[in-house]
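Hey,

Quick one before I head out. I ran the complex with zinc ion overnight. Inputs first:
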Amino acid sequence: MPIAPAFDRTNRPIARLLRHDEQVDRELTPWERDLLAALASAPGPQLETIRESLPHLVWTGGCGCGCASFNVRDSRYEEPPHELFHYSNGWTPDHSISFAFYLGEGDRPISLDILTEPEYFDARPDPATIVVVPAGP
Ligand SMILES: [Zn+2]
């Protein structure tokens, strides 16, 4: 069953809202890193490029709404243009939280949207339990 595209409650694509100029890049938390690795495990022609980028990713911005969505950047490259390719989707076994993973220029990871209700904003589900599927055409 296809997952709805990543929109927040105001129907704006979440990934376009994330960058805040005042934010400074930082290391990923272990949970963020494991979550990216889980979403990156979906099969696809970009898989090897994504895996090669994973150790080099840094956090570049969060979401103003209070959810845990975040943008990343391969620290070996300049900030890429914010062009998104939807690579994979995921969800927790209880479907309380959904995930949408995006690639940017050169198939490098750029954004991970975390879609859920405010009551789950602080949840950090074990990435090993997340069901991951390719986003598809
Ligand atoms: Zn948000």
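Residues 8, 14, 63, 65, 67, 69 surround zinc ion (CB under 6 Å).

Talk tomorrow,
K.
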